[in-house]
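Lecture notes, part 5. Sequence design as translation. It can be helpful to think of inverse folding as translation between two languages: the language of shapes and the language of residues. The source text, in structure tokens, appears below.
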């Protein structure tokens, strides 16, 4: 397959960025862009269709990524209140991913890009050894597991993006879309 018309050639982030946090931010941007590009390569019907036994569609996966990143950086690390942190999965994480009716690709991309900007600010303004605040995702309950540091959160979110970018590669290929990065 060939790269979709009008799509940008992305390159993996290069060594020599300004510190570890800048590398995390660059790789998150790279993987996020790959996922968005994969979804934009599909016609609307394929974007909302599933071709896998697990039942998710590419649009649902992208919606999940927007919520996942927000859960870890905004609600998790910053402990800011967020509306419906589990909104991609039934309100409590117990149901399969779902996208509300009338919510299209560009709305999901806008949500993802808004969170991306928040994530970049978190990474630019905090030491990676800083521990997540309590009161958001991480409750201040006696005997509860200690909140993770920002470095751990970065690695967790990076692995989730990488895994799901691979899932999208398969789903898009099965739908007849472009393969590879």
């Amino acid at each position: 397959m060939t790269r979709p018309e009008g799509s940008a050639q992305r390159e993996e982030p290069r060594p020599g960025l300004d510190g570890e946090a800048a590398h995390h931010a660059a790789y998150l941007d790279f993987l996020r862009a790959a996922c968005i590009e994969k979804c934009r390569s599909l016609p609307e019907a394929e974007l909302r269709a599933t071709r896998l036994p697990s039942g998710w569609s590419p649009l649902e996966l992208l919606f999940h990524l927007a919520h996942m990143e927000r859960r870890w950086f905004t609600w998790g690390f910053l402990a800011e209140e967020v509306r419906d942190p589990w909104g991609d999965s039934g309100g409590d994480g117990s149901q399969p991913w779902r996208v509300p009716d009338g919510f299209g690709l560009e709305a999901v991309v806008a949500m993802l890009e808004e969170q991306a900007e928040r994530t970049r600010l978190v990474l630019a303004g905090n030491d990676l050894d800083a521990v997540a605040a309590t009161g958001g995702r991480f409750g201040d309950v006696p005997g509860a597991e200690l909140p993770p540091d920002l470095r751990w959160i970065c690695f967790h979110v990076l692995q989730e993006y990488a895994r799901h970018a691979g899932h999208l590669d398969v789903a898009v290929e099965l739908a007849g879309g472009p393969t590879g990065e």
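The translated text above is only one of many valid answers, since several sequences can fold into similar shapes. The longest helix spans residues 150-174.
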